[in-house]
Amino acid sequence: MEMANYACYNVSFSPSNNIWMADDIMIKHVPLLCLQIAYDILVSRLFYFVLKPLRVPLIIAQVLAGFTLSPSLLGNFEWVFSLFYSQYGILTVETFANLGIMYYVFLSGLEMNSDTILRSRKKGTSIAIVGIVTPMLFGVGFLALQQKLIDKNDVFAQTPKENQGKAYLFWCLALSVTGFPVLARILANLKLLYTKLGKDALTATMLTDAYGWVMFTLLIPYSTRGGKPYLSVISTLMFIVFCFAVVRPILTPIIEHRTRMNTWRKSHLLDVLTGVFICSYITDSLGTHPIVGAFVFGLILPHGKFADMVLELSADFVSGILCPVYFAGFGFRLNLPFLWKQKNVG
Predict the structure, then answer these.
(1) Where are the domains of the chain?
(2) Interval 50-73 mean pLDDT
(3) I need a labelling partner for 85 at 20 to 30 A (CA). Which of 11, 51, 207, 325 fits?
(4) Is the full-model pTM beyond 0.70?
(5) Minimal CA–CA distance to 216: which of 168, 169, 148, 265?
């Protein structure tokens, strides 16, 4: 029988009232979160400004900013490390990081057009197939190289035989996925978005992303759940079909009518956020991952003026604030010196 390991935080708190057994978030959580967000934005913008002559996209600068929050770097500054790596700091950033990736994936689905995927041209489809098959071949080589370089006595042990198939699929998924919004912004900056090359590239990216999400939906239940993971896959696929067959026909006329009558307000964005959270909660409860539901919800919403309005209202907030927080959470788990100390890795 497999035993699960859990990491628990021993947090002391002083209830601010007699109703909620919790600390006052305005005293401990919010100020620290604001400080962390300010740090993430400042450092990511600094990297972006320095690397701008190289035409590096903003997301790369945000990844580099997340690296600066790794324990190996902040550990040299004891007071900063104790501040950022307190229980309150880690838990709050993790929560906002999950919200950030959920909403970022929702916007990715909103920018994509499912009709374009279904009616893709031969050239775009051919490019997508090459972009999928090639990483799958490289995935085999990288997995074999990993097994050869990493010693059995190292902390990063050899992948068990029963898990090698899952490891191979993870390599394929990581190598084949292309961020559709990132590519769209790069093509726009290069003024190639509306050229034939740009359209073919976007079509291929849509197809590879669709493949990636199918792989993700299948892989997560089989790699993280015991018992009968196929039930999670089947129930998630049924939910996706329900969204396209039932939810989409209901929402599309309502949204298009309000768009034509120009009755949309900024406050209605809360309704969209609620839909993102509901779909994310459902797919998480079904055993896959919250971002699958967020992506599907973005994909079923109508495109055009409504999508442009949602993107205009929220894109800057997501890419400028939530994404840096997500990469900050990634940086919290990164320990590069520990990796390089392993045998055969350096």
Answers:
(1) 121-223
(2) 83
(3) 51
(4) yes
(5) 169
